UniProtKB/TrEMBL annotation:
<dbReference type="GO" id="GO:0007399">
    <property type="term" value="P:nervous system development"/>
</dbReference>
<dbReference type="InterPro" id="IPR014756">
    <property type="entry name" value="Ig_E-set"/>
</dbReference>
<dbReference type="InterPro" id="IPR041647">
    <property type="entry name" value="IRK_C"/>
</dbReference>
<keyword id="KW-0597">Phosphoprotein</keyword>
<dbReference type="GO" id="GO:1990573">
    <property type="term" value="P:potassium ion import across plasma membrane"/>
</dbReference>
<dbReference type="InterPro" id="IPR013518">
    <property type="entry name" value="K_chnl_inward-rec_Kir_cyto"/>
</dbReference>
<comment type="similarity">
    <text>Belongs to the inward rectifier-type potassium channel (TC 1.A.2.1) family.</text>
</comment>
<dbReference type="GO" id="GO:0034765">
    <property type="term" value="P:regulation of monoatomic ion transmembrane transport"/>
</dbReference>
<keyword id="KW-0812">Transmembrane</keyword>
<keyword id="KW-0633">Potassium transport</keyword>
<feature type="domain" description="Inward rectifier potassium channel C-terminal">
    <location>
        <begin position="182"/>
        <end position="352"/>
    </location>
</feature>
<protein>
    <recommendedName>
        <fullName>ATP-sensitive inward rectifier potassium channel 8</fullName>
    </recommendedName>
</protein>
<dbReference type="InterPro" id="IPR040445">
    <property type="entry name" value="Kir_TM"/>
</dbReference>
<dbReference type="Pfam" id="PF01007">
    <property type="entry name" value="IRK"/>
</dbReference>
<keyword id="KW-0630">Potassium</keyword>
<dbReference type="InterPro" id="IPR016449">
    <property type="entry name" value="K_chnl_inward-rec_Kir"/>
</dbReference>
<keyword id="KW-0851">Voltage-gated channel</keyword>
Amino acid sequence: MLARKSIIPEEFGLPGLVSRMPRKPVFRDRVNKARFIAKNGSCNLAHKNIREQGRFLQDVFTTLVDLKWRFTLVIFTTTFVSSWLLFAMSWWLVAFAHGDLDPWSQNGTYCVTDVKSFTSAFLFSIEVQVTIGFGGRMITEQCPAAITVLIMQNIVGLIINAVMLGCIFMKTAQSNRRAETLIFSRHAVIAVRNNHLCFMIRIGDLRKSMIIGATIRLQVVRKTTTPEGEVIPIHQIDVQTESAVASNNLFLLAPLIICHIIDKNSPMYDLSAMELQCSDLEVIAILEGVVETTGITTQARTSYVSEEIQWGHRFVPIVTEEEGVYSVDYSKFGNTVKVTTPRCSARELDEKPSILIQTLQKSATSGSLRRNNSGLNSPKVQFFTPVEGGQSLNAVT
């Protein structure tokens, strides 16, 4: 028995319509990847299984500076109290060996006057090391051992003061404190500038004291596989900027827009707007310079993942001239505005320059239409008045 044919033709049926519908390209979902540099500049890296821990003790000063404040303060207090207790025991032993602790001892034969117990020896140790000198307890010339302990405690006290106070000073004057006022835009943008597809970020300095010899570096970090099959989990690729081409230094007086031209040497040369969304791309920005007030080199860092890169946007201007003074509105520091930008990759733009021309022409046409529509007035109404003789009419609008 033959199958009954449908009244609806096959080409108009559901399978036929589905087969003829244009299919959008399907991209895989972006794998959640841990970023290498956090937005605040801290490195998202954990050091594990370090067997040679003794290397950190070979550079004690740097280890103390790198410690957190609570550990530094504990070490600071413990070091001074331990040295006071150690030399208090030394003074007590000197007094015990000389017989100063004997209540029947004669005046004038003491090594240290008024040291009758360990408590008084501890107080005398503090007076010697911090040079307080209340005057009740003092050393005499009766025993050379006391003079030797006095010299040793002064030398050890000076060393402890130099190391600990130097450590506290370096922690308070660390260069990363100055980096707190060096800011980056929250998002990066990709737009057309000077007929080239460009990757742009904005940087600024909140302080009036300048950063001398400021330099900016951009790096792309991604997981790559070599032709030999070697997997490089953190492959760092340097990215050239316009400022680095002309000069290696920035005059960071006002906020600047750092521009990277996406050319054939760029790691983003083959990325389109759709491919960027599902890529594991991370762009790291590193700003370095010398602090004008202290002369210490500082460094500020941030990074941009694919979700933080806005395709087809441009930063709004924030510098204006007001009464002969240039004013910077930092409330608009990270604001962007949409602009007409091709959604294809930079490689396709180089291979087909007509794409860019058509996009710019379309943008210009739509912009002129918007201006014309916004400037339309009410339709003109013509009034005709008869002229003497009734033959001709004059139009009055």
